[in-house]
Amino acid sequence: MPSPDIAELRAFNRFYTNHLGWLDRTILTGSLSLTEARVLFELHQHQPCTARDLLRILQLDKGYLSRTLDSFERRRFIQRKSSTADARYLLITLRPRGSTEFKKINKASEDQMRALLEGLTPAARKSLVRHTKAIIQLLQHHRYEQD
Amino acid sequence: MPSPDIAELRAFNRFYTNHLGWLDRTILTGSLSLTEARVLFELHQHQPCTARDLLRILQLDKGYLSRTLDSFERRRFIQRKSSTADARYLLITLRPRGSTEFKKINKASEDQMRALLEGLTPAARKSLVRHTKAIIQLLQHHRYEQD
DNA sequence: GTCATTAGTTGACTTTATCAACTATTTTAC
DNA sequence: GTAAAATAGTTGATAAAGTCAACTAATGAC
Question: What is A94-129 written as a DSSP string?
Answer without folding.
Answer: E-HHHHHHHHHHHHHHHHHHHHHHHTS-HHHHHHHH
